[in-house]
Amino acid sequence: MSNTTTALSTATDAAQGQVTEAAGHAAAGTPGMPQLDFATFPNQIFWLVVALVVIYVILSRVALPRIGGILADRQGRITGDLEMAEKLKAKAAEAEAAYNQALVDARAEAAKIVAATRADIQADLDKAVAKADAEIGARAAESARRIEEIRAGAVTAVAEVARDTAKAIVAALGGTADEKAVAAAVADRMKG
Amino acid sequence: MQGDIAAMGAYIGAGLACMGMGGSAIGVGNVAGNFLAGALRNPSAAGGQTATLFIGIAFAEALGIFSFLVALLLMFAKGF
Amino acid sequence: MAGEAEGQGLSFHPMDQFAVKPLFGDALNLTTVTNVTLWMAIAVLCIFVLFVLGTARRAVVPGRMQSVAELAYGFVHKMVEEVSGHDGLRYFPYIFTLFCFIVFSNFLGLIPGALTLTSHIAVTGVMAVLVFLSVTIIGFVKNGTQFLGLFWVSSAPLALRPILAVIELISYFVRPVSHSVRLAGNMMAGHAVIKVFAAFAPLILMSGIGIAVTPLSILAITAMYALELLVAFIQAYVFTILTCVYLKDALHPGH
């Protein structure tokens, strides 16, 4: 490398021989910079271009489509799985809704049955109550009638007793009881 | 003798050129520090700006690399 | 680096690890098989194993390798879509190619003794120029002369616009430089630092002070190595995302 550097400087700067020599001297102590050794440039560039073209061909022909395919595949699968899950979820929701509907229906039915039963029972009850009322009314009327009868009987008996008593009193007083007058007097008195 | 003076000048020049790296270091520190200050203030926006951070650092750093290059050229590329 | 350190025989050759050497013989021409070829072949092989053999089973529930392959695919795919927009996805294979190559070069370069391909400005430069040219061509093909609106900042005051246009134009043409030098510089710097620390490690064999210095240097190598693992990924990420940003500019130049 130092040779090249020296050669270069000799070519470009032949007049300053001493400087060139100094540069050569300095370069002898230190190896110089391989990066600035222009003699190796064509070689490096040649191999770099070869390497880049090879890498480009490998990547663009094989690797990138494959990796892109893998990623798209995975994305597709994930999307598909998510869709499936969404579908299943919808189905589950549907089933739940159906179940709830059934529950609501059953409840309504039960309520209807309860109401009907209650109405039936009420009707029966009403009928029974009416019947019982009627019976009670009849019995009360019967009792009233009987009481009336008894009262009437008692009044008759009282009148008879009063007549007899009155006849006896009249007889005890020494009179002769006129049957008709006594009865009239008693009836008169009992009236008020 | 003349060559030695030339070499000495080159070495001094290389040393002086290295000062440029300090400026670049300040620049990079400035970029990173300000990014950190901003990121702490609004951490949610920091994630999207890492690319900007690195671009900023790269631009600040390039100038330091230039001075490094000048130093190297002075030291190694005599007669160039 | 200062040649021999204090005459103690410590040798600092942090740049030796990046040397391009022919594997067979000495001659170096266009198609010579060098260590660059070797490590590029290993990178290609790793990519083949991970992305072709790893996904060969096309399992719906991925195994370890397939997970990594899918993760990388998803990572870059999302990045392209978010940054460049939906029409950027047409260029996804190209961006993914770059990402894979850089990531594998970076990580393979961390194997001790390996050549870090991405530390070479020739390698990153070619990639950056490829991105720059294709993005510019895409921009002109898709938008015609409207693509030039990228440089004409219509939201700025009219007087400032020509100045801004010059600045925008310069920054546009600096893009491939910073794009490539960032990656190469990061990889080179980290590896060189590890190598410098490593040069202190044999001090224990040479002087008494080595009892303190050697463990320290080993510790420093470990710490740098951990950092380099992070950097290896981040730089691949940054290269890719900047490619996406440039692509977005080409597809939608109207800011």
Q: What's the layout of helices and strands?
A:
The complex is a heterotrimer of chains A (192), B (80) and C (255).
Chain A: H1 2-12, H2 17-29, H3 41-172, H4 179-191
Chain B: H1 2-41, H2 43-46, H3 50-76
Chain C: E1 4-5, E2 10-11, H1 35-53, H2 64-84, H3 92-109, H4 121-143, H5 161-200, H6 210-251
Antiparallel strand pairs in C: 1-2
- Radius of gyration over C-alpha positions of chain C, nearest whole angstrom: 22 Å
State the low-pLDDT regions of chain C, or none: 1-7
How many DSSP helices of chain C?
Answer: 6
Order of helices and strands of chain B: HHH
- Secondary structure class of chain B reads mainly alpha
Average of per-residue pLDDT values of chain B: 86
Taken as a percent bin, the fraction of beta residues of chain B is under 5%
The greatest interface here is: A-C, 42 and 52 residues
Shape of chain C: globular
Ranges of chain B where pLDDT stays below 50 over 5 or more residues in a row are none
Number of domains of chain C: 1
The CATH class of chain B is identified as Mainly Alpha
Order of helices and strands of chain C: EEHHHHHH
CATH superfamily of chain B: F1F0 ATP synthase subunit C
Assembly state: heterotrimer
First and last CA, distance of chain C: 46 Å
Distance between the termini of chain B: 20 Å
Q: Tell me the number of structural domains of chain B.
A: 1
3D architecture notes:
The complex is a heterotrimer of chains A (192), B (80) and C (255). Chain A is an all-alpha fold. Chain A folds into 2 domains: 2-106; 149-191, no CATH class. Chain A has 4 helices and no strands. Chain A has helices at 2-12, 17-29, 41-172, 179-191. Chain A is rod-shaped and about 190 Å long. Chain B is rod-shaped, with a radius of gyration of 18 Å. Chain B has a single domain (2-76), classed as F1F0 ATP synthase subunit C (F1FO ATP Synthase, Up-down Bundle). The mean pLDDT of chain B is 86. In chain B, helix 1 runs antiparallel to helix 3 (50-76). Chain B is mostly helical and 80 residues long. Chain B has 3 helices and no strands. Chain C is mostly helical and 255 residues long. Chain C has one domain. Helices cover 64% and strands 2% of the residues of chain C. Chain C has helices at 35-53, 64-84, 92-109, 121-143, 161-200, 210-251; strands spanning 4-5, 10-11. Chain C has a two-stranded antiparallel ribbon. Chain C is globular. The interface between B and C is medium-sized, with 15 and 18 residues.
